[in-house]
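User: Hi! I have a protein structure encoded as tokens and I'd like to know what sequence might fold into it. I'm fairly new to this, so please keep things simple.
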């Protein structure tokens, strides 16, 4: 994996589980390089990951090694750079009330794309005056505005993952359309559990 691919998406082949936290070692399909995959155990033999950084793991692996995060078992978007896509995810009732559990830590229990400074949560019953939440590490704040504005307000791709979450299929359909209109690729994340 090329270090300049920070934030890029790659298909990997599962190699083995590492430790007891659901992590794995996988091999990048395009280069053969081994990577450390957070949340990569107990998935398909091949899956999509987002490159995050290099680090020295503590779980008996000779490092340094790239740290990547599980995105989806759909590998059709492999090879995209960070500036070519935006992640989106569907929030389900079984995941809890995101309005009540509104920190990135709670969100990361279900979706963990790696380095993430904030994410947008669009409520099912959103209006332009009460669209949803900006979810940050230790807090959340309401936001209003257009769906186009949400896309524009996402962090720059070199800062971290860009993620939009909604509990509405209709809103996600609109978001996917707007992402595509901006010549970007909407990439659906798969829940971790």
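Assistant: Happy to help. Inverse folding works backwards from shape to sequence: for each of the 193 positions I chose a residue that suits the local structure. Here it is:
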């Amino acid at each position: 994996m090329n270090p300049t691919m920070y934030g890029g998406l790659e298909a990997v082949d599962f190699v083995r589980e590492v430790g007891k936290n659901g992590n794995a070692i996988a091999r990048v399909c395009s280069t053969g390089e081994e990577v450390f995959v957070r949340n990569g155990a107990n998935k398909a033999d091949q899956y999509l990951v987002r490159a995050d950084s290099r680090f020295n793991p503590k779980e008996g692996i000779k490092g340094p090694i790239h740290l990547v995060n599980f995105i989806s078992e759909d590998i059709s978007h492999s090879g995209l750079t960070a500036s070519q896509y935006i992640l989106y995810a569907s929030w389900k009732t079984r995941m809890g009330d995101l309005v009540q559990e509104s920190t990135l830590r709670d969100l990361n229990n279900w979706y963990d794309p790696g380095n993430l400074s904030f994410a947008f949560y669009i409520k099912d019953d959103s209006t332009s005056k009460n669209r949803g939440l900006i979810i940050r590490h230790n807090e959340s704040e309401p936001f209003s505005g257009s769906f186009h504005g949400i896309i524009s307000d996402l962090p720059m791709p070199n800062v971290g993952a860009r993620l939009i979450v909604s509990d509405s299929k209709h809103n996600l359909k609109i978001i996917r359309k707007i992402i595509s209109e901006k010549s970007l690729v909407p990439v659906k994340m798969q829940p971790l559990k």
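A useful reference point when you look it over: The two ends are 27 Å apart (CA to CA). Feel free to ask if any position seems puzzling.
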